[in-house]
Every structure is written in C-alpha cells, then in structure tokens.
Design goal:
The structure is a single chain. By secondary structure, the chain is an all-alpha fold. It has one domain (9-114). The chain contains five helices and no strands. Helix 1 crosses helix 4 and helix 2 (37-56) packs antiparallel against helix 3 (65-88).
C-alpha cells in the first residue's frame, strides 16, 4: 500500500461502500420514473456482461460448459432477484427497500445455522 493510503482506516472504506450501496437505491428509484423495471435491469446486466467481457477478455475462452451453465443459472437467479426488487421500488420508498435487502446480513448466518 502506498504511504498516502496507510492512514485511511478500514472503517472509512466500509462507510464509503455503504454510502455508494445506499445511494444506488435512490438512483434506481429515480431512474424508474422514466424507464421500466425490466428495461432497467436488462440494461444493467448487459452493461455488466460487456464490461466483464472487456476486462476478462481472453480468460473467457478457458471457461468450460459446466462453468457457463452454472454462471447462467446464477445470473438468472440474480436477474430475477434484482428485477423483483426493482419492481418493488415502484411501490415502496427506497429506504425500506434498502433495509429489507440489508436483512440478508443477519439472515444468511441464521439460515446457515438452521440448515
């Protein structure tokens, strides 16, 4: 790490990530005023796929069929999760949506313990 970054505490990194994550709910809610949830989520996923292809480039040629199918399955599940959340942002405030989404933090370990 460079000398200029040594004085930055991990807590400030966490605050920054939380700020960016929280503000994304407001941005998505604002975007929904002029675009449908399906088009918005589809656009986000296409942009993400293009950026991944740009960054990963040659490494994508080494991915097996099993990896592609696993990625397709996971991506489909995540797509529908984002889509349902985005549809929900049309009817509830972004703060409530963010709170409900953040509940995965305590629920994942609890479900893991139960299962």
């Amino acid at each position: 790490m460079g000398k200029s970054l040594k004085h930055i505490s991990p807590e400030w990194g966490l605050v920054s990530v939380c700020f960016l994550w929280g503000s994304s709910f407001i941005l998505i809610a604002t975007a929904l005023e002029s675009i449908s949830p399906g088009l918005l989520v589809t656009s986000r996923f296409i942009l993400g796929a293009l950026l991944t292809a740009l960054i990963m480039g040659k490494e994508l040629k080494n991915i097996t069929r099993v990896d592609w199918m696993g990625g397709l399955w996971a991506g489909t599940c995540i797509f529908f999760g984002y889509f349902l959340q985005t549809v929900g942002l049309q009817t509830i405030p972004s703060s409530i949506s963010a709170f409900l989404t953040a509940l995965y933090v305590p629920f994942v370990p609890l479900l893991q313990l139960i299962l």
